[in-house]
Amino acid sequence: MVKMFLFDALRAATEEEMMRDSKVFVLGEDVGHYGGSYKVTKDLHAKYGDLRVLDTPIAENSFTGLAIGAAMTGLRPIVEGMNMSFLLLAFNQISNNAGMLRYTSGGNFIVPVVIRGPGGVGRQLGAEHSQRLEAYFQAIPGLKIVACSTPYNAKGLLKSAIRDNNPVVFFEHVLLYNLQEDIPSEEYLLPLDKAELVRKGSDITILTYSRMRHHVLQALDVLVKEGYDPEVIDLISLKPIDMLTISQSIKKTHKVIIVEECMKTGGIGAEIIAKINDNIFDELDHEVVRLSSQDIPTPYNGKLEQATVIHPYQIVEAVKGILNKK
Asked: Which of 190, 84, 97 lies closest to 143, judged by CA?
């Protein structure tokens, strides 16, 4: 085992795949000489040079389109968005090209591109740098969407994403890069379409992902001490959603809370509720409770920003409210 920060785990995954396959390359703003805004590509330029660690102009639509074209011709690009919010400028390339080309070409082309970078609500980064874009991309046919949450799953998931023949949007949370964990020194890969059972329990199912996993675990410390027994699932795959794991849990607990940083309106939680109602509604003993961020642009003011997202005490209150309901 070796102790790594999350950004180091992502860097290690990238370097291992670049060493393994000469078709893998990285492009984006400041990924080369500077080593990336969050140092995920630190020192890779010195080892691999300008053509495999490519510094781009500030032109997200152009370099994302370049990456998709490169993927169609046999390369395996990794696009780093300096902030995932900036990739809204490449929404056309991601939706109309990356998501569609395998289908519209009748399978003649594959698009093995990874689009990764930091997102989520940070610490006073302002509205335009604190967006929660997972639901924006979830609606696009043809994409896979992954949200890492620990150094361990970040490394294994990124390696799998790079090897996948489909376009993968890979979400990292800006506040998790300095999370540290012991991870295996030997190579490992993790599936892109499976949720992780974080804790087994019998009282209630808590579904979460990304940074909110850690808020849930803080809430768990309180709940377990008070005699509650929640089951916690980290979704990891936001598209496709692992309904098998979710269904198995709900059939055991019959109650479910979704904790997300996404907006409530049209968010990931809304899609999960629809899937639960479609597939296992009869297993529910209580309506699905959804704890989501406020439907507002993220404020710059620190206290208002904190009030935008869900906190552990709210999770504790919600679980108790359901389980103590007569």
From this structure: 97
